[in-house]
Design a protein that fits this description.
Length: 94
């Protein structure tokens, strides 16, 4: 019994331009689907998700910080690094 890969007709290899022999090949760190072209052996993500926090999340973190909560606590509450909070504050004050 052999495995047959499903072909998604909207997926094209960015290197060779073919849409045949494109197979799913895991997910990247942000959770986007990766594909592999079996003709030219490259891995690619056709529609990568942005790897950054939304502007609303940033503004809420900054407001929380200015209300008296430490940068470390803001990071713990929102599940990101304290350095993100400090970088957003520095960027905003420029």
């Amino acid at each position: 019994m052999s495995r047959v890969a499903k072909i998604d007709e909207n997926i094209y290899c960015p290197n060779c331009g073919k849409h045949e022999h494109q197979v799913k090949h895991g997910k990247n760190k942000s959770g986007s689907q990766k594909y592999r072209c079996n003709d030219c052996n490259i891995d690619y993500t056709p529609e990568p998700r942005p790897w950054q926090y939304s502007e609303e999340v940033r503004e809420q973190a900054i407001k929380t910080y200015y209300s008296g909560v430490s940068g470390r606590r803001v990071g713990i509450l929102n599940n990101f690094s304290k350095s993100n909070v400090y970088n957003w504050i520095k960027k905003r004050n420029k």
